Amino acid sequence: MAPVKKGILERLNAGEVVIGDGGFVFALEKRGYVKAGPWTPEAAAEYPEAVRQLHREFLRAGANVMQTFTFYASDDKLENRGNKLTFTGAQINEAACDLAREVANEGDALVAGGVSQTPSYLSCKSEKEVKAIFKKQLDVFIKKDVDFLIAEYFEHVEEAVWAVEVLKETGKPVAASLCIGPDGDMHGISPAECAVRLVKAGAQIVGINCHFDPMTCVKAVKMMKEGVEKAGLKAHYMVQPLAYHTPDCNCQGFIDLPEFPFGLEPRILSRWDMHKYARESYNAGIHFIGGCCGFEPYHIRAVAEELAPERGFLPAASEKHGNWGAGLEMHTKPWVRARARRDYWENLKPASGRPQCPSMAVPDGWGVTKGHADLMQQREATSQDQLKQLFDRSKTH
Question: Which residues take part in binding Zn(2+) (predicted)?
C-alpha cells in the first residue's frame, strides 16, 4: 500500500511550504477550452485530457495542491446569462475531482475542492438560498473525499463566511481566500476584520487570491495576519495572486482594467518576479503559496525554485531550467551566454515593445456592488438593448 500522505494542516503545522497550482480558467481559455465571460469549468467534463495535462504540468512544476477545476461551478453561475450547458454542475464537479485525484496520486499532492462566490448573492438571495448552493457542490466533494476545502474568490466577506460555515460542517480542513486588496472587501470591511470573521466562522487557513498582483496580495495577507493575532486567534495563511502587474487598480482589482481580459499580456510577471513574490510571502509568514489568473506552470516552478532551500528539493521541471538562467551558458551567441547570471535577470527592467503604450491605465469605476440593479443576474441571455445601455454608459466613465 502507498504511504498515507500528510494532510494540509499537518504540513502547515510542521512549518512546511505548501505550493498551490495556477489559474486554470485563464490558462485553459488561452488554450481554447474555456469561454471568457462565463469563466465556467465545463472543460473538466468536455475536455478532460486538457485539464488533466494542466494539472500534470503544475505538479511537475512543484505544486503539491491540485485544486479541483470547479471554479464558478454552481448551478446558478453555470446557467447565468444564456450560458448553454451539456453537462450538469454535479457532472462537472465529479469529473474535476476525479482528474485532480488522478494527478495528485502521481506525486505527493493533496486535492482541494473549491467553491466561489455566486450570482445569487449579488442578486440579494437569502443566506439560506446561497448556502444551499454551496451545500450542493459540497455533496460532490464529500462523495469524492477531497483532502480539504477552499472557499475562494469572494468579494464580500459576508458571503465567504456563509461558505465557510457550510464547509466546516464536513469536519475537513477549511481554507478561505478573498479576492480583495488592502482597501478591504466591496463594503469596505478591512482585511484584518475579514480574516477575524473567517477564522471565527471556522476557517483554519485564511488569505487572498486573484484580483491583484503578488505584492499587493501579500500586503493584504499581512494585514489579515495582524488582525488575527491582535484578536488572540490562530490561523495559517495563504496567498494565490494574479500573475499580472496591477499598480493602477482600484478596490475591485483587475476586472476594472480596460485590458481585462484580452489585453493583459503586457502586464505579465516574469519568472524572476515570481522569485521575489515567493520570498516575500515566505518572509511574511505565509506558507501556502500559489497562483491564480495568469499563472502558468513556469511561474509555479519559479516559486518552487526560490523556496527549494526551505522545501529541501527542486521540482521535476527544474531539470529543464538552469538556476538563474544557467542554461544560457550553452547558447551559441556570446552576448546571450553573458546573460547566464542572477544579477542580470534580477536587475532587468523589461521593455514592452509598444511605443504608444501607456505605463498605467485608468480603471473603470462604476462603483456598484451587491444590491445594485446593475448586478441583478438573469438566466436568459443578455439582450441587445441591455448591451446598448452598457455601451452608452461606458462612454461616460
Answer: 210, 292-293
Annotated binding residue at 194?
A: no
The fold of the 8-323 domain, in CATH, is: TIM Barrel (3.20.20)
The model's pLDDT over 182-230, given as tens digits with 9 standing for 90+, comes to 999 999 999 999 999 999 999 999 999 999 999 999 999 999 999 999 9
3-state secondary structure the chain: CCCCCCCHHHHHHCCCCEECCCCHHHHHHHCCCCCCCCCCCCHHHHCHHHHHHHHHHHHHHCCCEEECCCCCCCHHHHCHHHCCCCCCHHHHHHHHHHHHHHHHCCCCCEEEEEECCCHHHHCCCCHHHHHHHHHHHHHHHHHCCCCEEEEEEECCHHHHHHHHHHHHHHCCCEEEEECCECCECCCCCCHHHHHHHHHHHCCCEEEEECCCCHHHHHHHHHHHHHHHHHCCCCCEEEEECCCECCCCCCCCHHHHCCCCCCCCHHHECCHHHHHHHHHHHHHCCCCEECCCCCCCHHHHHHHHHHCHHHHCCCCHHHHHCCHHHHHHHHCCCHHHHCCCCHHHHHHCCCCCCCCCCCCCCCCCCCCCCCCCHHHCCCCCCCCHHHHHHHHHHHCCC
pTM: 0.92
The residue extents of the domains of the chain are 8-323
Determine the pLDDT at residue 358.
86
> Does 210 carry a binding-site annotation?
yes
Cell numbers of 351, please?
521593455
User: Distance (Å, rounded) from C-alpha 310 to C-alpha 259?
Assistant: 37
pLDDT tens figures, 85-143: 778 889 999 999 999 999 999 999 999 999 999 989 988 999 999 999 999 999 999 99
Residue 293 among known ligand-binding residues: yes
Of 29-43, 81-95, 176-190, the one with minimum mean pLDDT is: 81-95
Q: What is the mean pLDDT of residues 220-243?
A: 98
CA neighbours closer than 13 Å in the CB half-sphere of residue 183? 11
